[in-house]
Amino acid sequence: MTFPFSRGQWLVALAVAGVVAVALYFLARPAALPPGFVSASGRLEATEVDVATKIAGRLVALKVREGDSVQAGDIVGEFDAVDVDAQLRAAQAQVLQAQETVREAHAGVRKSESDAVLAGRTLARSQELVQRGFVSGDRLDRDRSAQDGATAALSAARVRVAEAEAGVASAVARADSLRATVGETTLKAPITGRVLYRLAEPGEVLAAGGKALTLLDLGDVYINVFLPANDAGRITIGSEARIVADAWPDELVPAHVSFVSPSAQFTPREVETRNEREKLMFRVRLKVDPAWLQAKAQRINVGMPAVAWLRLDPAQAWPERFGKR
Predict the structure, then answer these.
(1) Which of 303, 294, 288 lies closest to 192, judged by CA?
(2) Using an 8 Å Cβ cutoff, are 79 and 57 in contact?
(3) Which in 27, 231, 291, 310 has the greatest CB count within 10 A?
(4) CATH number for domain 51-81+186-212, candidates 3.40.50.720, 3.40.50.150, 3.40.1190.20, 2.40.50.100
(5) DSSP structure class, residue 269
(6) Once rounded to an integer, what is the mean pLDDT over residues 3-12?
(7) Hey, how many other C-beta atoms are within 10 angstroms of the C-beta on 305?
(8) Cα–Cα distance measured from residue 302 to residue 47, given in angstroms and rounded to the nearest whole number
(9) Residue 298 carries which DSSP code?
(10) Bridge partners of 216?
(11) Measured between alpha carbons, how far is 308 from 311 in angstroms, rounded to an integer?
(12) Is 288 left (phi over 0), alpha (psi -120 to 50) or beta?
């Protein structure tokens, strides 16, 4: 078998290829940062919010699917409300009944007040007649007893008014509670975000607190990185940072430090070497700038690997390649 190139030509070609590979490696490798900066790898994450039902019931509709965007307040699901609607109508009827009872009680008070006034006048006339000797003392005693009875009846009538008004308040509270329960038969998105998981399907019966959806809050995107103690100790809350996602190597994502763990912990499992895993590190959270998120949140995919660049020395200026956002 013959070859189109001689052995010497093959060696020259291999040498050239090696030189090219080395050159490409150094060209592709990011330039080292000056002192006062540090970098670490992580993954973009976002706060997860569960959408759960407050009441037990059968899910009749779930209007969004995984990946859909929702706005805060959007109706994303509905539960069977027939039973609750019936209870609400019964409670509203009880309110009307209690209000009628109050009206009857007030009418009873007016009658008792009239009876008490009449008894008082009758007693006054009897007292005058007794003084003149026209009637006996027995008549005065009967009229005095009648006045006492009318006064007691008036007090009892006023108590019935108070009880009737309490009944109205109770019935109204019951109706308000059921009206709120009817409102809970619709699931509303608590935040503006994206559907991460669809956890239930129409027809399923969910217990109170049962989860139907999990949303990603795209207004709260962050990356957790791990730094050794000598670097983590120099990080200040609120300090500037930059994030470069693997998917957008040419775009700088502005961020700031929102949390530094007060205690050391092991590095995540993604670290490949055993020696690195055995080192205790401090977790640092970088929150992506809200203004950047507002403009480009739809580009965020949770789990995207990225590199974070942090400034340890506030007096140190960012290098030119990190100076623009």
Answers:
(1) 294
(2) yes
(3) 310
(4) 2.40.50.100
(5) T
(6) 52
(7) 13
(8) 10
(9) G
(10) 48, 194
(11) 10
(12) beta
Comparing 234 with 20, the larger pLDDT belongs to 234
Using CA atoms of 17, 20, 26, 27 in order, give the dihedral in degrees to the nearest 10: -140
Residue 38 structure tokens: 């540090």
List CB contacts of 115: < 8 A, sequence separation 6 or more.
150, 153, 154
Q: How crowded is residue 130: how many other Cβ atoms within 10 Å of its Cβ?
A: 17
Give yes or no on whether 33-47+217-322 and 51-81+186-212 have one common fold: no
Which tokens hold the place of 254? 């502005």
Residue ranges per structural domain of the chain: 33-47+217-322, 51-81+186-212, 82-184
Residue 51's CB is within 10 A of a number of other CB atoms, namely 22
CA distance 204 to 72: 24
Contact 44, 323 (CB under 8 A): no
287 phi, psi to nearest 5 deg:
-100, 130
Q: For residue 255, list its beta bridge partners.
A: 241, 288
pTM here is 0.64
CA dihedral 115, 116, 117, 119 (to 10 degrees): 80
Distances (CA, A) of 108 to 57, 101, 104, 200, 205: 45, 10, 6, 57, 50
Topology (CATH level 3) of domain 33-47+217-322: Elongation Factor Tu (Ef-tu); domain 3 (2.40.30)
Tell me: the pLDDT tens digits for 34-53?
678 888 999 999 999 999 99
- Which fold does the domain 82-184 belong to in CATH? Helix Hairpins (1.10.287)
Distance CA 319, CA 30 (A): 12
Residue 263 has pLDDT above 90, yes or no: no
Mean pLDDT of 230-243: 88
